[in-house]
C-alpha cells in the first residue's frame, strides 16, 4: 500500500519550484534527514496527507501579465460574442419580439402592384466606387485588374507604399502618373459594397430588383472619383458613355425617361453632366437644348453636397476630421509622425492632395451662404437637446428685455455660435467680437522657402508644408479666424499646387450674371450658384437627406507641437470643448446634418435656390425636399439601421428606398406627399440674402 501511495504522489503532485536559497536549505535538509517508511499503511497515508497539506499552503507566484495576453483575451471575447450572436440568429425562433427581420420594402411594394417602369441610373459619390489596376510599377505587376480601392484592402498591409503610389495622381496634371493606370470598376459591383459586409448601393439594388429591375433597365455610372469631373471625360470618356447609356436605356425601354439617383459628390458630378450634355463640342457633349427634358424624368439626389462640405477644409489643412482628432486625443502619437516613424497623416495628405475632386467639395457661395465673422444661417442652433428648452427661454427673455435695455436694465445676452468662422486658431478666436480679431493683410500670405523642415531622417514624405517657413505658418495662425471667403486665400497659400491645378476645373462663388459667356466654361458647371438648370419644365429634382445627427460645421485649430518627424504644423485642437449650446466638442463645432453634409448644403437649393422660377432655375423645374429623421438601430439584427439618416447608412433606410421605388415606378413628387421637413432649412434659407 505504501508503494501505491508513493506512486500517486509522484504522478499527481506538482513539482515545487525553489529559489536558490530554498534549494540550498532543501539539500541540507535532505542530507540530514533519512527517509523513514513505516510498515503500517495508516502511517504512510498520514505522511502523504501531511505533505499535501503543506504544498497546498504554498502560494504560487503570480504570472507577469503581458500585452499579448490582453490582445488574446480581447480577440477571444470578440469571437465568442460573434459566434453567440450567430447562434442566436440562426437557431432562435423568428417570431420572438425584436428578432423578426422586417419585410424588404421592394417585396411589400411588389405585392401592392408596383413594377419597374422608368430605367434607373445610379451615380456613386467620392471614395465609395471601386478602383482596379490596369498598369502598374514592378511592385504591383502581379495584380492586373485587381482592386486597389474597395473590397478587402489587403494590399494596404502587404505593400503599403506601393499601394499609395498607385492611388496617387500626377501632381502637375491631375491625371495618371507615368507607368500607372488605375481605372473605375465597371458595373453594379463597382459600388454595391465598399468592403465585405459594408453595403453602399447593395440594399437599394436588391429592392429595385424585387419590383423587376435588372441589367437592361438599371445602370451604375461608375467613374474615377479622384479626377476632376471634366478630366473623367478627357481621360476615360465617362460622360460620353453615360450619355450613350441613357439614350440606349430610353430607346430600349419604350421611350421611358430615366430616373437618376446620385449620391454625395455624385450629385454635383451629375449636375456637371447636365450642363455638359447640352453644351456644344468640343467642351460639351453636343446633345443640344432639350436633351435633358427628353431623356430624364427625375433626379433623386441622396445626401447632396450641392454647396460643399466643411470637413473638406480640415482634410486639406491637416488630413483630419472629427474622428481623426478624437483618435489623436485618446491615443496621442498613434497617428502622429513620431509613432514608429510611420508619418500616417503625411502620407494621407500627400496622396489626397493629388485628387482634384476634393476641391469640388470646398464650400461654395462664400459668406453669403456660410456666414461671416458675426453671422451665419444656423445661428441659434442648439446641439444638446437638454439645453434646447433653456436656450429658447433665453431667447424669449432677451426679446422681452430688448425694450428695457434703453432704461438701464441689464441682462445677459447668450452668445450665439459663430459658425461663419469656419477655421479659428484658438477657442478665443471663435468667440471674440470681430472688432477684436486681427485684420488680414497681404503679408500673411507671403510664402517663404524653408529647408529647416526637412524630414529626411523620417523618410521621404513630402508635403507642401515643407516649403513654408515657421514664421509664415505662425503669421497665418496666431489668433486668426477665417470665413469661407478668406479660407480660399489660406488654401491657396498652404496648398498652392493643388489649388492652382484644381481651380482650373472648379469655382466656388456666386454668379452675378449667368448670361455672361464666361459661365459656359466647364469650371462653373458643378456649382449650382454659377450655372442654370436645363430647360426641362417636366423634370423633377429631389433633395433626399438625413437630419438629426451632429455634423461638422467649423473648427478650432492650433499649431502642432514640434517633433522630429512632423511636417504638418496645424491640427484640430481637441482640447477645445464646451459651449452654451453644446455644439463645441473636441475642437469641432457641430450643426444639424447627416454626419457628413450639413443641412444647409444639402437642402438650400431645393428650399430656395431652385424653388419656383429663379435665375438658377429658369424653366421652373419642380423641387422637393424629403428629410429622414435619424433613428439608430434598436437591435443588432437591424445592422446599420432601417431608419438611419447617416450619410452612407441612409442607403438602407426603408423610407428612402420606398420613395425611390415609387418614383421609378411612375409616381410624382406630389404623389409622394411633396416636401417632408424636420430641420430648420426653411428658416436658414430665409436668412440668406441672395438674388434669385
From TrEMBL:
<keyword id="KW-0472">Membrane</keyword>
<keyword id="KW-0812">Transmembrane</keyword>
<protein>
    <recommendedName>
        <fullName>phospholipid:diacylglycerol acyltransferase</fullName>
        <ecNumber>2.3.1.158</ecNumber>
    </recommendedName>
</protein>
<dbReference type="InterPro" id="IPR003386">
    <property type="entry name" value="LACT/PDAT_acylTrfase"/>
</dbReference>
<comment type="similarity">
    <text>Belongs to the AB hydrolase superfamily. Lipase family.</text>
</comment>
<keyword id="KW-0808">Transferase</keyword>
<feature type="compositionally biased region" description="Basic and acidic residues">
    <location>
        <begin position="29"/>
        <end position="39"/>
    </location>
</feature>
<dbReference type="Pfam" id="PF02450">
    <property type="entry name" value="LCAT"/>
</dbReference>
<keyword id="KW-1133">Transmembrane helix</keyword>
<keyword id="KW-0012">Acyltransferase</keyword>
<dbReference type="GO" id="GO:0019432">
    <property type="term" value="P:triglyceride biosynthetic process"/>
</dbReference>
<dbReference type="GO" id="GO:0046027">
    <property type="term" value="F:phospholipid:diacylglycerol acyltransferase activity"/>
</dbReference>
<feature type="transmembrane region" description="Helical">
    <location>
        <begin position="67"/>
        <end position="92"/>
    </location>
</feature>
<feature type="compositionally biased region" description="Basic and acidic residues">
    <location>
        <begin position="381"/>
        <end position="403"/>
    </location>
</feature>
<feature type="region of interest" description="Disordered">
    <location>
        <begin position="381"/>
        <end position="410"/>
    </location>
</feature>
<dbReference type="InterPro" id="IPR029058">
    <property type="entry name" value="AB_hydrolase_fold"/>
</dbReference>
<dbReference type="GO" id="GO:0016020">
    <property type="term" value="C:membrane"/>
</dbReference>
<feature type="region of interest" description="Disordered">
    <location>
        <begin position="29"/>
        <end position="53"/>
    </location>
</feature>
Amino acid at each position: 500500500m505504501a508503494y501505491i501511495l508513493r506512486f500517486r504522489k509522484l504522478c499527481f503532485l506538482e513539482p515545487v519550484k525553489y529559489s536558490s536559497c530554498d534549494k540550498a536549505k532543501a539539500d541540507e535538509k535532505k542530507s540530514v534527514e533519512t527517509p523513514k517508511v513505516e510498515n503500517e499503511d495508516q502511517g504512510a497515508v498520514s505522511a502523504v496527507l501531511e505533505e499535501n497539506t503543506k504544498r497546498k499552503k504554498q502560494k504560487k507566484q503570480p504570472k507577469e501579465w503581458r500585452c499579448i495576453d490582453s490582445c488574446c483575451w480581447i480577440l477571444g471575447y470578440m469571437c465568442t460574442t460573434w459566434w453567440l450572436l450567430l447562434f442566436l440568429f440562426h437557431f432562435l425562433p423568428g417570431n420572438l419580439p425584436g428578432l423578426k427581420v422586417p419585410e424588404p420594402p421592394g417585396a411589400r411594394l411588389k405585392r401592392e402592384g408596383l413594377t419597374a417602369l422608368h430605367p434607373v441610373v445610379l451615380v456613386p459619390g467620392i471614395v465609395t466606387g471601386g478602383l482596379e489596376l490596369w498598369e502598374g510599377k514592378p511592385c504591383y505587376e502581379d495584380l492586373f485588374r485587381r482592386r486597389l480601392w474597395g473590397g478587402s484592402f489587403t494590399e494596404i498591409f502587404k505593400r503599403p507604399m506601393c499601394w499609395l503610389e498607385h492611388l496617387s495622381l500626377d501632381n502637375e496634371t491631375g491625371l495618371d502618373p507615368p507607368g500607372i493606370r488605375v481605372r473605375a470598376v465597371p458595373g453594379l459591383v463597382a459600388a454595391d459594397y465598399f468592403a465585405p459586409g459594408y453595403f453602399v448601393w447593395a440594399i437599394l439594388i436588391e429592392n429595385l430588383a424585387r419590383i423587376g429591375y435588372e441589367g437592361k433597365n438599371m445602370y451604375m455610372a461608375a467613374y474615377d472619383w479622384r479626377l476632376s469631373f471634366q478630366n473623367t471625360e478627357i481621360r476615360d470618356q465617362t460622360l460620353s458613355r453615360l450619355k450613350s447609356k441613357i439614350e440606349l436605356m430610353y430607346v430600349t425601354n419604350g421611350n421611358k425617361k430615366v430616373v437618376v439617383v446620385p449620391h454625395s459628390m455624385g450629385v454635383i458630378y451629375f449636375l456637371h453632366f447636365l450642363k455638359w450634355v447640352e453644351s456644344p463640342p468640343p467642351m460639351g457633349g453636343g446633345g443640344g437644348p432639350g436633351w435633358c427634358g427628353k431623356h430624364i424624368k427625375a433626379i433623386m439626389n441622396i445626401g447632396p453636397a450641392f454647396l460643399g462640405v466643411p470637413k473638406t477644409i480640415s482634410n486639406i489643412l491637416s488630413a483630419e476630421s472629427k474622428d481623426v482628432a478624437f483618435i489623436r486625443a485618446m491615443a496621442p502619437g498613434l497617428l502622429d509622425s513620431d509613432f514608429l516613424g510611420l508619418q500616417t497623416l503625411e502620407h494621407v495628405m500627400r496622396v489626397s492632395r493629388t485628387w482634384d475632386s476634393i476641391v469640388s467639395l470646398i464650400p461654395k457661395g462664400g459668406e453669403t451662404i456660410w456666414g461671416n465673422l458675426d453671422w451665419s444661417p444656423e445661428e441659434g442652433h442648439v446641439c444638446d437637446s437638454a439645453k434646447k428648452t433653456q436656450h429658447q427661454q433665453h431667447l424669449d427673455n432677451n426679446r422681452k428685455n430688448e425694450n428695457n435695455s434703453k432704461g438701464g436694465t441689464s441682462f445677459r445676452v447668450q452668445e450665439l455660435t459663430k459658425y461663419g468662422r469656419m477655421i479659428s486658431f484658438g477657442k478665443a478666436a471663435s468667440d471674440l467680437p470681430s472688432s477684436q480679431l486681427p485684420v488680414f493683410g497681404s503679408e500673411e500670405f507671403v510664402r517663404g522657402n524653408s529647408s529647416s523642415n526637412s524630414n529626411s531622417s523620417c523618410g521621404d514624405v513630402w508635403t507642401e508644408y515643407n516649403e513654408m517657413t515657421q514664421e509664415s505658418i505662425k503669421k497665418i495662425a496666431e489668433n486668426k479666424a477665417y470665413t469661407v471667403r478668406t479660407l480660399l486665400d489660406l488654401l491657396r497659400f498652404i496648398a498652392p499646387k493643388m489649388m492652382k491645378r484644381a481651380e482650373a476645373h472648379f469655382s466656388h462663388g456666386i454668379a452675378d450674371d449667368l448670361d455672361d459667356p464666361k459661365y459656359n466654361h466647364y469650371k462653373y458647371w458643378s456649382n449650382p450658384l454659377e450655372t442654370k438648370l436645363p430647360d426641362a419644365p417636366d423634370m423633377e429634382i429631389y433633395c433626399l437627406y438625413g437630419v438629426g445627427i451632429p455634423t461638422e460645421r467649423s473648427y478650432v485649430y492650433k499649431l502642432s507641437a514640434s517633433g522630429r518627424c512632423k511636417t504638418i504644423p496645424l491640427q484640430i485642437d481637441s482640447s477645445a470643448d464646451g459651449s452654451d449650446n453644446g455644439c463645441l466638442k473636441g475642437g469641432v463645432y457641430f450643426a444639424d446634418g447627416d454626419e457628413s453634409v450639413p443641412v444647409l448644403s444639402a437642402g438650400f437649393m431645393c428650399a430656395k435656390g431652385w424653388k419656383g422660377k429663379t435665375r438658377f432655375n429658369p424653366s421652373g423645374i419642380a423641387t422637393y425636399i424629403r428629410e429622414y429623421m435619424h433613428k439608430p438601430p434598436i437591435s443588432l439584427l437591424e445592422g446599420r439601421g432601417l431608419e438611419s439618416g447617416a450619410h452612407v447608412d441612409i442607403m438602407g433606410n426603408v423610407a428612402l428606398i420606398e420613395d425611390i421605388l415609387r418614383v421609378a415606378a411612375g409616381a410624382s413628387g406630389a404623389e409622394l406627399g411633396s416636401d417632408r421637413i424636420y430641420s430648420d432649412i426653411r428658416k436658414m434659407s430665409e436668412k440668406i440674402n441672395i438674388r434669385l
